[in-house]
Design goal:
- There is one protein chain.
- The chain contains eleven helices and 15 strands.
- By secondary structure, the chain is an alpha/beta fold.
- Strands 3, 4, 5, 6, 7, 14 and 15 form a seven-stranded mixed β-sheet that branches. Strands 10-9-8-11-12-13 form a six-stranded parallel β-sheet, with helices on both faces.
């Protein structure tokens, strides 16, 4: 084991520490050593997430325990363990999981509390596309948004991987209505294929006005927003009485324009709460992992939950993979494979 730990590995690096997609390159770095409750996993595939783009550009608050290598979700095989690893995981096990960083590499040292056994029914690529996406959707929808059966829900960025996961979770848990916004009819149709009740093109429609009309003026119980500034007023307008608005990102910016009417907060008793999964402690993430295993994993196995994949790249084409994500034209996960 010591000789394994002493060797180097290939990993994706960023020239000068930050920059455009073209700054990404594969280099050699020290292979990590598992400690405490960690396992060393030889990675077969990893998923891309929008935070990777922000981190690459030096615009993401990386947790202090994260290595500088990008990537938070992966699938692979355990090749070594530290002494306090969860007893359920052994060398040779096929797993997938969530990490604070380091997945764009041949090996990753990751807490066994954030690993899940990979069922034989799931490919390496599909498994790598589950952890960040589905755990984020679960956190936003249930823990922060307090969704329960019979409530209505709005998923912005409807064709994003998190929202596609959320649409399926909402349908499985008997939402009264599932609304989405997206920037093209193709994306709206894509969302409907997973169970969305209705979709609205933010480029051509006044989505807040039309959702209020669709709900008879009642509005939506839970709103999941990744956009921030441009949608802030619309979110307040479309939220139902005692509604919950969950903000997961600020793609349009953080500065609100003059004239924003915040009267809905008091009038409708609204709660607007921001959240981030990556900054949460390991115990919090472990609970979400356990929830995913208990409630979602059986549905992945029987095929009722789907992980749509836009494209699979060999990791040598990491530049092209990032450029595709930056195009905002994707519908589903972008996955890279190693070996």
């Amino acid at each position: 084991m010591a000789s394994i730990m002493a060797s180097t590995m290939a990993a994706v690096d960023i020239k000068a520490g930050k920059g455009p997609a073209s700054a990404l390159n594969i280099t050699r770095i020290q292979k990590p050593t598992p400690k405490d409750a960690q396992a060393l996993v030889k990675i077969k595939a990893f998923g891309l997430n929008r935070m990777d783009l922000l981190q690459r550009e030096g615009m993401y608050p990386v947790p202090p325990q994260a290595p500088k290598t990008l990537g938070v979700e992966f699938s692979g095989t355990i090749v070594a363990e530290a002494k306090n690893a969860e007893s359920a995981f052994k060398v040779g096990d096929e797993v997938f999981g969530l990490a604070y960083g380091g997945a764009y590499a041949e090996y990753i040292a990751v807490s066994t509390h954030m690993l899940i056994h990979k069922p034989k029914e799931l490919s390496w690529e599909v498994a790598a596309g589950i952890p960040e996406t589905w755990i984020t959707a679960t956190q936003a929808m249930y823990l922060v948004g307090e969704f329960s059966a019979g409530k209505s829900i709005l998923w912005h960025a409807g064709a994003s991987s998190v929202s596609i996961a959320g649409i399926q979770l909402s349908k499985a848990d008997n939402a009264s209505a599932i609304y989405v916004t997206a920037g093209s009819q193709e994306k709206l149709d894509f969302c409907r294929s997973f169970g969305a009740t209705a979709g609205f093109n933010y480029k051509t429609q006044d989505w807040a006005k039309e959702i209020l009309e669709a709900t008879g003026g009642k509005g939506v119980d839970v709103v999941i927003d990744f956009v921030g500034q441009n949608y802030f007023q619309g979110d307040l307008d479309v939220a139902a009485r005692d509604g919950r608005i969950v903000n997961l990102g600020t793609l349009s910016g953080t500065k609100l324009p003059a004239g924003v009417d915040i009267g809905g907060f008091v009038r409708k008793r609204l709660r607007y709460e921001g959240s981030s999964l990556r900054s949460r402690d390991e115990g919090y993430q472990r609970k979400l992992r356990d929830s995913l295993v208990e409630h979602a994993l059986p549905k992945f196995i029987d095929g009722s939950f789907k992980v749509p994949i836009e494209k699979v790249f060999p990791w040598e084409e990491i530049v092209q993979a990032h450029e595709l994500m930056e195009s905002n034209k994707t519908m589903g996960k972008i996955i890279c494979t190693i070996g």
